[in-house]
């Protein structure tokens, strides 16, 4: 199979992508967070292709993408009142909401759970595609399961070239981290996966403190402890530990992703932004770049222990997790 690359500036690209999805094919699509691997959410065969292509466990749920909140009742039931507040402020955008699923939703989407995760992406290309299809699509990250999520069409090709029908190239992703997942199935909203929407923004809108719960038993995308991992081994260190690093200790094919202004003449470094939003924008592309440069070990200086860095800490923790 030859993977088509459909340019966003090429007339008819969205039409081609729409037809491929309608025919049961897989198409990588741009969102403001990361590139997703899209399939028609009503087509069981197409959905199963996602699991096969990614190597994704079938009990690991997929996120449903819609064009409008008007479609929500076709996919979810028992919709809580605080959803409208969140949707008004953050949809379209990097927010996914966990809700009770409609009985007609395919079990393949939810991994057998009675809950479904839904979002409305803000990328104009994908919104146009969703409106043209006039149906939901499921779209986990367009990469091999457990690896670093793609934030460009090139990243998708690196993992899935020849395995999927097409990539709708919408340029570099603006946010660079996956959506924030908020559980609305209980009385109090809970963040199950931190992401492109910050905790402070959510608390401000709802006017209440929000629980952050990394519950590995809850079935949502990205909740596995070993996730977002490059080919290189990843280690995290505190700023106070950097001065003890030497090339002899690390090995010649190691690089330090550095936040601080510290003298590190004895080791290779790569400077990362001090702003958490900008850091998130380039984290995945930086990890992939280090793989392209054939580094065998990536050491990451841990950012500050502040709420606006929470999603970054989550990704570093999962990228550096090693099975015992």
TrEMBL record:
All copies of domain YrdC-like, residue ranges: 11-197
Catalysed reactions, as listed in the record: L-threonine + hydrogencarbonate + ATP = L-threonylcarbamoyladenylate + diphosphate + H2O
SUPFAM superfamilies referenced in this protein's UniProt entry, alphabetically: YrdC/RibB (SSF55821)
Keywords: ATP-binding, Cytoplasm, Nucleotide-binding, Nucleotidyltransferase, Transferase, tRNA processing
UniProt keyword annotation of Cytoplasm present: yes
EC number(s) recorded for this UniProt protein: 2.7.7.87
InterPro entries hit by this protein: DHBP_synth_RibB-like_a/b_dom, Sua5-like_dom, Sua5/YwlC_C, Sua5_C, T(6)A37_SUA5, TC-AMP_synthase_SUA5
Subcellular location: Cytoplasm
Broad class of where this protein is predominantly found: cytoplasm
Protein origin, superkingdom: Bacteria
Family: Belongs to the SUA5 family.
General function of this protein: Required for the formation of a threonylcarbamoyl group on adenosine at position 37 (t(6)A37) in tRNAs that read codons beginning with adenine.
Entry protein name: Threonylcarbamoyl-AMP synthase
Organism per entry: Candidatus Methylopumilus universalis
């Amino acid at each position: 199979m030859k993977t088509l690359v459909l340019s966003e500036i090429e007339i008819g690209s969205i039409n081609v992508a729409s037809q491929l999805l309608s025919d049961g094919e897989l198409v990588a699509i741009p969102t403001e967070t990361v590139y997703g691997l899209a399939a028609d959410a009503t087509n069981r065969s197409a959905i199963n292709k996602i699991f096969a292509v990614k190597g994704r466990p079938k009990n690991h749920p997929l996120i449903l993408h819609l064009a409008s909140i008007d479609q929500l009742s076709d996919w979810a039931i028992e919709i809580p009142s605080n959803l409208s507040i969140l949707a008004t402020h953050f949809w379209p955008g990097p927010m996914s909401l966990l809700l009770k699923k409609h009985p007609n939703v395919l079990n393949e989407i939810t991994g057998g759970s009675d809950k479904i995760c839904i979002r409305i992406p803000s990328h104009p290309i994908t919104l146009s595609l969703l409106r043209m299809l006039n149906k939901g699509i499921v779209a986990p990250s367009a990469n091999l399961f457990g690896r670093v999520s793609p934030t460009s069409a090139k990243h998708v090709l690196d993992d899935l070239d020849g395995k999927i029908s097409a990539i709708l190239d919408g340029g570099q992703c603006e946010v660079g981290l996956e959506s924030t997942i908020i559980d609305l199935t209980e009385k109090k909203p809970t963040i199950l996966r931190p992401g492109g929407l910050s905790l402070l923004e959510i608390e401000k809108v709802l006017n209440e403190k929000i629980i952050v719960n990394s519950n590995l038993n809850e079935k949502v995308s990205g909740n596995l402890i070993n996730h977002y991992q490059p080919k290189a081994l990843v280690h995290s260190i505190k700023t106070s530990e950097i001065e003890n690093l030497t090339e002899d200790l690390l090995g010649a094919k190691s690089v330090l992703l550095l936040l601080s202004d510290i003298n590190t003449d004895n080791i290779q470094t790569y400077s990362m932004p001090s702003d958490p939003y900008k850091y998130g924008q380039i984290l995945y592309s930086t990890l992939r770049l280090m793989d392209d440069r054939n580094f065998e070990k990536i050491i990451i200086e841990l950012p500050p222990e502040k709420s606006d860095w929470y999603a970054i800490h989550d990704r570093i923790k999962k990228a550096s997790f090693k099975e015992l």
